[in-house]
Design goal:
By secondary structure, the chain is mostly helical. The chain has 18 helices and no strands. Pfam families: ArsB.
Length: about 450
């Protein structure tokens, strides 16, 4: 665990300065004027915080220690996702499911939702939102679905991208940051969150079906679909997908017990697929995937964003804001695991929806660390995992809740699909609340079974 010592407020000036710098940085990250990018926007905020004394130079290595593994893991996962997308793997999977459903939309809908859940589990929520969404749109266009049906599908895929990103450490950058901060091993995390994720996916499928089935036609013409394997462009990368994924998951379960970072294992998987795509063993002959395009589209700005934004968040910690949040969390603890899980989950969800989930996860993690009286108890575990659930699901409340959602909305706009903020909030708040309740209540019950340590 990262060692931190949180004190009371250091003064009204520090408090106001830290809050203003945080809010201004958040606006720049979301707005990105002049194509500044999320990385340089957050670094600018960090530099202002440093020069004004809101953070100190000694905070920089502390924050770097928190974020480096999470950042390496995330970038590696996105590179893997881009390689698989270029190879045709996701397109193959979507077409295969459409063929398996044999023209029955009410069968295809849950299959696509479950595909989204699997992609989120192994390739993070960004992989589902940014890669699977265009593939689903193209599939729906091929099947000649109308605008209302297409809208229902893409909003369902966008929803499951976040709600199904709970089961593994690698499923969401939020998970990686939390696991790194609290020194949670890969097996321990999975033992707690896989069951929670199963319930969350089933709850998500239920609310999506109830809400969107009315817009879906009952049947579609399967004969206009191409053969699934015909969409595969790089057969070598395609053949390596499942072995590499199996390698990553098994290695993460085993090696994290010995202190090997998750990022190192995920990066190894990315290197294997990248080398296979490069055809280096054939001198580059037979190469299909544009590797320059893959590297160019990798989220390098996330590296700068992670360090910069979390330094700004550390300024909030130095000003005592995390101490105040910890006092709020402590109000839930006397009422047991269920109330603690629900309370922490909803606090994290609301903060994520307002301020974006990436800064909020560390902000609340720092606050949880301040609840010293509960260290080593199930209540403490409920707060840790409740924060993860809230920061994974809470971004669905508003379009600014996560950067992935903002990018997802941009991707949809390129296909002529526009979702207003009002429609977004009305739909997703209604859908997210029951799923968040189901997830946090399941967490509380399951923690009693798995105990404090794996």
């Amino acid at each position: 665990m990262v060692s931190t010592t949180i004190s009371e407020f250091t003064g009204d000036t520090d408090y106001v300065a830290a809050l203003v710098i945080f809010l201004c940085t958040l606006v720049l990250v979301i707005w990105q004027p002049g194509g500044l990018g999320i990385g340089f926007s957050s670094l600018g905020g960090a530099l202002v915080a440093l020069f004004t004394g809101v953070i100190s130079p000694s905070n920089i290595p502390t924050v770097f220690f928190i974020v480096w593994d999470a950042t390496l893991t995330f970038v590696s996962l996105i590179i893997i996702s881009l390689l698989l997308d270029e190879s045709g793997f996701f397109h193959w999977a979507a077409i295969l499911l459409a063929q398996l459903a044999k023209g029955h939309t009410l069968i295809l809908f849950p299959l696509i939702i479950l595909l989204g859940a699997v992609v989120s589990a192994f390739f993070a929520n960004d992989g589902t939102a940014l890669i699977l969404t265009p593939i689903v749109v193209k599939m729906l266009q091929s099947l000649q679905f109308d605008k209302k049906a297409t809208r229902a599908w893409v909003m369902s895929v966008g929803f499951i991208a976040d709600t199904a990103s709970l089961p593994l450490i690698i499923s969401n950058l939020v998970n990686i940051v939390s696991a790194s901060y609290f020194s949670i091993s890969f097996p321990r995390y999975a033992s707690v969150m896989i069951l929670v994720d199963i319930v969350t996916v089933l709850a998500s499928l239920s609310v999506l079906s109830i809400y969107f089935f009315r817009y879906l036609p009952r049947y579609y013409d399967i004969t206009i679909l191409p053969k699934a394997y015909s969409t595969v462009r790089d057969k070598i990368v395609f053949a390596l997908v499942f072995p590499v994924l199996l390698l990553i998951v098994i290695a993460d379960f085993v090696t994290t017990l010995y202190g090997v970072p998750v990022g190192a294992i995920t990066a190894l998987g990315a290197v294997i697929l990248f080398l296979a795509a490069s055809r280096f063993y054939q001198g580059g002959r037979g190469r299909v995937i544009n590797l320059k395009k893959v590297l160019f589209n990798a989220p390098w700005q996330i590296v700068l964003f992670s360090l910069g934004m979390y330094l700004v968040v550390f300024g909030l910690r130095n000003a005592g804001i995390t101490y105040q949040i910890s006092r709020l969390l402590n109000k839930f603890t006397p009422h047991g695991l269920v109330v603690t899980s629900l309370g922490t989950g909803f606090v994290a969800a609301i903060v994520s929806a307002i301020t974006n989930n990436m800064p909020s996860v560390l902000l609340i993690a720092l606050s949880i660390h301040e609840t010293r009286n509960y260290h080593g108890t199930l209540i403490y575990q409920a707060m840790i995992y409740g924060n993860i659930i809230g920061c994974d699901l809470g971004p669905k409340f508003t379009p600014i809740g996560s950067l992935a959602t903002l990018l997802w909305l941009h991707v949809l706009s390129t296909y002529g699909i526009y979702i207003s903020w009002l429609e977004y909030c009305q739909t997703y708040i209604l859908l997210t609340i029951p799923v968040l309740v189901a997830s946090t209540c399941t967490l509380a019950g399951w923690l009693k079974v798995v105990g404090i340590s794996a």
